[in-house]
Design a protein that fits this description.
The chain has helices at 14-25, 32-41, 59-64, 67-83, 95-98, 114-125, 129-151, 172-183, 193-214, 238-249; strands spanning 3-8, 28-30, 88-91, 105-111, 163-166, 220-223, 228-235, 256-263, 277-280. It has 281 residues and is an alpha/beta fold. It folds into 2 domains: 3-183, Rossmann fold (3-Layer(aba) Sandwich), CATH 3.40.50; 218-280, no CATH class.
């Protein structure tokens, strides 16, 4: 299996190029609608508020609610889960960050000059230059804030990409052909069994983190494998510590939990190492 992630600056035909690549390679195309549909079918979004996949939540909601973060964690879990099913082209949604460490993934940024992008938006949206410039500026701002919120990363960081295409002089077919050629190079490895296990592990970890946020538990989770989980950090009561354990019991994949959470009513750091328990599920 192979993966291609394609990100775009508005006005560069990025989505059309991504769909053309998926069609040419016979890969699944995963854009916003496809990802949300898959996540819903997996049951990841049945009880969480929807947040736009590349727009920042309102400031007050980011400050006083965990709902946007929970949604993002669930969507990231869906991306990892989809990646275990077969070769795919992921359009947007932070795929270049989530799959960055996998040798089987090619990461592409589709860009272009400001002037060409404005002309493209004017033509496709039937709007004037001033409005087109505002639309593009708003899109860049929203993406920048969202990626800081979700990943603490600048989405235009060139180090995140293997290939950056300027479409000022490239049509959709030409750009797609260049991406397909790069994807078929021997340097892009086939996704092996270890990578598949890592993807499944990451998907489960994101779902765990989202479920813990839902009960107000800000704790750390590490996973040695799909069956063994360790929890550590501070909780304000024994009741919360037990709640955390009960949340993990809902995940059938997990066989054992090492609960190193420390009960600290004041939230202050404690050097006491008591209260450590090992639970079999």
């Amino acid at each position: 299996m192979h993966f291609i992630t394609i990100s775009e600056m508005l006005g560069t035909n990025g989505e059309k190029i991504a769909r053309k690549v998926a069609e040419g390679l016979k890969y699944s195309f995963i854009g916003k609608e496809e990802l949300e549909k898959a996540a819903t079918e997996m049951g990841y979004l049945s009880d969480v508020q929807k947040v736009d996949g590349e727009k920042s939540p309102p400031v007050l909601e980011r400050l006083f609610s965990e709902r946007p973060k929970i949604y993002v964690e669930r969507m990231q879990a869906a991306i990892y889960e989809i990646a275990t099913k077969g070769s795919a082209v992921f359009f947007g949604r932070g795929g270049m960050i989530l799959l960055h460490s996998f040798d089987s993934a090619l990461h592409v940024l589709v860009t272009g000059s400001a002037e060409k992008r404005v002309e493209k938006v004017m033509k496709e949206s039937h709007i004037g230059r001033e409005m087109a410039e505002k639309v593009i500026g708003h899109s860049l701002h929203e993406k920048r804030v969202f990626f800081r919120f979700a990943f603490d990363e600048d989405w235009l960081n060139p180090a995140l990409y293997d290939l950056i295409l300027n479409t000022d002089k490239l049509d959709v077919d030409s750009a797609a052909e260049m991406i397909i050629d790069a994807a078929e190079s021997k340097e892009i490895k086939v996704c092996g069994i270890d990578s598949l296990r890592a993807l499944a592990n990451l998907s489960l970890q994101r779902r765990l983190e989202a479920s813990l946020l839902e009960i107000g538990a800000h704790v750390s989770v590490t996973m040695d494998n799909l069956e063994s989980v360790r929890l550590y950090g501070l909780v304000h009561s024994q009741e919360m510590k037990e709640k955390v354990e009960n949340v993990l019991k809902k995940f059938k994949e997990i066989r054992s939990v090492r609960n190193d959470l420390i009960v600290s009513p004041t939230g202050a750091f404690s050097r006491r190492m008591g209260g450590i328990s090992f639970v079999s599920i």
